[in-house]
Amino acid sequence: MLGCVVPSFGWYPEDWTRLQNCAGIWAGVWLTVTPTEHGLSFLDGEYAALVRFRLRVPLQPEGGPCRRGGTRGSARWRRWYDPEGDHAHSCARNSGTWTRRHGHLRDQLKTMLRWLGFWAEAEQADSRLPHRPDVRAQGFTLPLTHFEVHVSHPQRSHMEAAQDRRGSSNCAFVEEAWRRRLDRHYAGGPPPNAPFQLIPAVVCSYGGWHPEFAQWWRGAVRAAAERAGPTASPQGMLWRSVGFLSVTLQRQNFQVLAGCAPTLEHQVQGRLGRPLSEVPEFWRAAPEAAVLWGGEELGYPPSPRGDALEPVGPDSDLLHSAAGHVRAAGMWL
After folding, report:
1. H/E element holding 202?
2. What integer pLDDT is reported at residue 303 of this predicted model?
């Protein structure tokens, strides 16, 4: 049905490819994850720029000269930053940010595997493979598994036939990226009877993961939850681990965009603070009468709005951070 509707809107194939990638597996996790830990948090400037990039809203009107140097032109080495940020994912002089993004995602994958209770190390060579995988993992319930981490961006400059192929499903682009990776580095892949698994930790820049990786990760989380006992929450473990991977990818995507954008790096101010340290929305949005009623009936802390409150110490400040959220849920501390 959607395939029939899209042409009536006059969309180009590359726009449909982007939309399909935005609908990929776990592609929207970073948009809704609760910032209960620093690793699940964004700076305001990062979040705003990444949402604009996802929606293809100009990061900078009319673009500008790439920070890496050069002038406007149509040649392969042109140095003009497009308003939407695609240039940053193809600029050869920006490749250092791609390498750092890859390294951060690899290390976060290793950390999450260890958090699930598996042994994991990065950059472990295996003589049975022609290329060194990014992460090697093993456990009591986990056979020897290698992970190849790869981040790819759907370039808009490809031919229409390629765009149609990559936009045929929400997984088509990452599946094609993995086939190229197998052909280039693994001679088409390990043999069928190999005593190990080679899992594609392949993800699109918009956040959609390869379906084989998603299937493997769900099984690993279930196994970890079974070992942890009846009090473990498989769903909570899944979304915490996926949330860390998703947020890590997007924060590094911001660094890729800022690598070429003339002014984007200056939009990031501040630092990640205490999780949930912002004033809860109850006090920011509720009428004053509702705030007073909440204090009398439910024991909410005093409203921090206005200048009526005297300066408070660190202990009192907790009332307006995570503790404030707990109180707003009806729990007493």
Report:
1. strand 197-204
2. 58
Do 249 and 203 touch, CB atoms closer than 8 A? yes
Strands, sheet with 142-152, edge to edge from the N-terminal-most edge strand: 119-122, 135-139, 142-152, 197-204
Please tell me the least confidently modeled range out of 173-182, 202-211, 280-289, 309-318. Answer: 309-318
What CA–CA distance (Å, rounded) separates 26 from 20? 12
List, in sequence order, the alpha helices (H) in the chain: 2-8, 13-22, 29-32, 44-55, 95-115, 160-166, 172-185, 211-228, 234-260, 281-285, 288-298, 314-317, 322-328
Please name the helix (run of DSSP H) or strand (run of DSSP E) that holds residue 105, with its range, or none. helix 95-115
d(C-alpha 95, C-alpha 97), whole Å: 5
Task: State the pTM of this model.
Answer: 0.75
**% residues pLDDT > 90 (the chain):** 40
| 242 strand-pairing partners | none
Contact at 8 Å (CB) between 302 and 327? no
Rounded CA gap, 237 and 112, in Å?
A: 10
Structure token digits, residue 179: 């086939």
| Euclidean distance between CA atoms 47 and 320, whole angstroms | 23
Residues in Cβ contact with 165 at an 8 Å cutoff, skipping those fewer than 6 apart: 172, 176
Token couple for 12: 């180009």
DSSP string of 225-283, one letter each residue: HHHH-TT--HHHHHHHHHHHHHHHHHHHHHHHHHHH-SSGGGG--S---STT-SPPHHH
The HSE-up count of residue 257 (CA atoms within 13 Å, CB side) is 35
DSSP class of residue 128 equals T
Q: pLDDT per residue over 26-72, tens digit each?
A: 999 999 888 888 888 888 888 888 998 998 888 877 777 787 765 55
Token couple for 284: 């920011």
